[in-house]
Structures are given as C-alpha cells and as structure tokens.
Amino acid sequence: MKKIILASTSTRRKEILENLGLEFEVYKSDVEEKVDKYLTFEENVERIALEKALKAAEELKNEDSLIIAAHTMLIYDNLIGMPSTEQEAFDILQQLSGKVHEIITGVCVFDTSENRGMFTHKKTKVKFMKLRDDFIRRFINEGETWQKAGAYSVVGKGALLVDEIEGCYTNVMGLPISLLGEMLVEFDMNII
C-alpha cells in the first residue's frame, strides 16, 4: 500500500486527515508561497499546492507515496494575509466585520510511483458577524489571530466571528475533504 504524505505542517490539515482515520506522515515542504500577479487567485492556490507536492516528490523520489498538498488564501477585495501586529489584526477583522469573504484552497494529489498528479481548488464564502471594536480587541487578546490568514481560524473562539458559511466547512479550515475524497478515488484510494 502506498504511503500517504501530507506536504504541510498545518495542525488543522493534520487534524482533518487524522479525523478520517488515515495513516500518514507529515513532510515540511519549504516552498515560497509567492503570489504571481499575472495569475488569478484560483490559479495561484493550485500552482502553490502543486509546487509543494512536487518539492515533496523530488525529495521522496524513491518512495511509493501518495502526496497531498494544499494552499489556502483568504480573499476580500484582494488577498488578506496573516497579521504581524495587533493593529494589523484589528484592521483586518474590522474590515471583514459584517461582510462576506472567500476562502480558496488549492489541493494537489501526486503519486510518486506513477509520476502523476492532479490539482484543483475549492471556494467557500464566509460571512462575519458585525463585530464591535471592543469585541475585536478582546478576541485579539485571546491570541488566536497569529499565524492565520485573516487573523482568525474557524476552529476555537474564531467561530464566534462567523455568521454563515456557504460551501465546504473543512475548506475554511484549510483542506476541503469532499474534494480530496474525490481526488483520491482517481488514484484508486477510497477513504471509506
């Protein structure tokens, strides 16, 4: 049986695969997650997921592995990244307050023995509650804003920010399971 490799150190992606009962290894794929301004956001997430998978495949070339890689972006008018200061976190959350933003995740599955892969993406819309400034400050003080695009995670207290989700919930976490399940079937692997 093929070894499954998750080309990501994301704790959420790891948790999602563990909840499916999959046995896998984690590989840190050091790929520069640079946005190409000549590509759409959808093309960028797919390209970066593919680059992560190919980097892992290159380093694990002698192993019979099925590599899963993903890259997620949060879009509201433009790309919103991770805050580096409390003020940036506040500004991001204030900007998203009461509005709908989009989560786009590119997913790539690559079979090292067949030297074959496929990649695609999934979109989910997230509407935030109308947030008061004092609530935003308290949320930032909880410490859940760091290392997260959009200054929040839908898991934990970040769920308090979310009014509605239209689409795949696990996509908002960083790995759309329904899409991944369909992709794995193409590599003769059924989760159930």
Automatic annotation (TrEMBL):
Name any one GO molecular function: nucleoside triphosphate diphosphatase activity
Gene Ontology annotations of biological process type? nucleotide metabolic process
EC category name: hydrolase
Reaction(s) this enzyme catalyzes, per UniProt: a ribonucleoside 5'-triphosphate + H2O = a ribonucleoside 5'-phosphate + diphosphate + H(+); a 2'-deoxyribonucleoside 5'-triphosphate + H2O = a 2'-deoxyribonucleoside 5'-phosphate + diphosphate + H(+)
Its cofactor is: a divalent metal cation
Record's keyword terms, sorted? Cytoplasm, Hydrolase, Nucleotide metabolism
Q: Name one Pfam family in it.
A: Maf
Q: What is its main location?
A: cytoplasm
EC number of this enzyme: 3.6.1.9
Q: Which GO terms describe its cellular component?
A: cytoplasm
Q: Where in the cell is it found?
A: Cytoplasm
Protein's job: Nucleoside triphosphate pyrophosphatase. May have a dual role in cell division arrest and in preventing the incorporation of modified nucleotides into cellular nucleic acids.
Q: Which family does it belong to?
A: Belongs to the Maf family.
What is the name listed in the Swiss-Prot or TrEMBL entry for this protein?
Nucleoside triphosphate pyrophosphatase
Task: Please tell me the species this chain comes from.
Answer: Alkalibacter saccharofermentans DSM 14828
